[in-house]
Amino acid sequence: SQKIEQNSEALNIQEGKTATLTCNYTNYSPAYLQWYRQDPGRGPVFLLLIRENEKEKRKERLKVTFDTTLKQSLFHITASQPADSATYLCALGYNAGNNRKLIWGLGTSLAVNP
Amino acid sequence: GAVVSQHPSRVICKSGTSVKIECRSLDFQATTMFWYRQFPKQSLMLMATSNEGSKATYEQGVEKDKFLINHASLTLSTLTVTSAHPEDSSFYICSAPLGHYNSPLHFGNGTRLTVT
User: How far apart, in whole angstroms, are the C-alpha atoms of residue B71 and residue B56?
Assistant: First the structure.
């Protein structure tokens, strides 16, 4: 079956360290992957998009990698801060006939401790 | 920057009543809006795609007569949950692509619906 998985356990790290979150998928041929941040009781906020032919994307302290051989995307937050504490969602975009579909992971909760 | 405004943020209603949720795009026009539902500890599930000036497209398993969608203008889409039941209690979130259809999404802040 087609699946998209994120590390289910909450990630706790110390302020200043690098947080690394994982998004794995099976049985999809993605056109792109998107990463969003979601705070409790709020809608997701778009962070980064990486396309199938891209290996890495950066934006300020954020970095996303995409390995279509491993079927995996990694999301890194460097020099993490307590304000980075949130749930991070990955979303995979793939072609379904003439349409483009988006499927979401469950998200990984990140807590950055001061 | 582009903002999607969603109201109300929280609503409690009695079983059998209807609830309308509004989603507005501010500072940009949205010919397409997406309505999602999120249950606790579950992923975002697309319910329907709202198209300005035409009928909404519903995902498999979503009852179009129960979840009425109206997208009468380029900046407003509404979702009405009709004859709500406790199992409809959930977090409903609308979103709109900033640019073309496959652009990243701008989300509203969601509506927490509780049906008693």
Answer: 8
